[in-house]
Amino acid sequence: MGEVWELIEIMMVDSEVMGIDAAGNTLESLMEWCQKHNRIPDQLKSLAIDADRNSEQPLPSNQNYFDAVAGHLLCADMENAVETLKLHPKFDDSGTNEVCTLVGFILSKPLLAEFANYPINQYQTAFDNWQQDLSDALENDAFQDDNIVKLVGILSGDEEIIDTCLHLTGQWYRLLLAKVHKI
Questions:
Q1: What are phi and psi of 58, to 5 degrees?
Q2: Is 18's pLDDT higher than 60?
Q3: Does residue 34 contact residue 76 with C-beta atoms inside 8 Å?
């Protein structure tokens, strides 16, 4: 019940108090709420790490691992998405493979807070350019692995891919927030 009250507080009270100009802040607050209440990515990450430790299934071939990253991305939890991707055996600081390239894109995502003193359209332009760079990299075959391609699709706002991810958000309204956040 507390989860519902927090959601109502964000949607009704915070947006009313902050006003219409704070629409981006309201969305960020909703995404933080989504991160807090969606435990699925952390559960999947634990399952993947346990399977890797027990030599049952290495991370690169474990769907739970990639689903954990996808779940974090859908909730705009970039920090945990990057932390999880860094567990991949191909990750290193050289930046010469698709895992490193994806981490670089995630870390370079424009943040609304960086544009707090600027008109919202400047943030939107930076975000659109970032998504276009992702799409261009995908078209130029920078990403080959199907799991990585799915993650890039989530980041670039591909609704067809996002629509397949309800099981990673747990609730339809969290998936709806993910869609709104990616456009």
A1: -65, 150
A2: no
A3: yes
SS (H, E, C) 118-166: CCHHHHHHHHHHHHHHHHHHHHCCCCCCHHHHHHHHHHCCCHHHHHCCH
Q: Give the chain's length.
A: 183
Closest CA to 97 of 169, 38, 148, 153: 148
First and final C-alpha spacing in the chain:
29
How do residues 153-164 score in pLDDT, each as one tens digit? 999 988 899 999
pTM, entire model: 0.83
Lookup result for tokens 């690169």: 60
* 146 Cβ contact list (under 8 Å, min separation 6): none
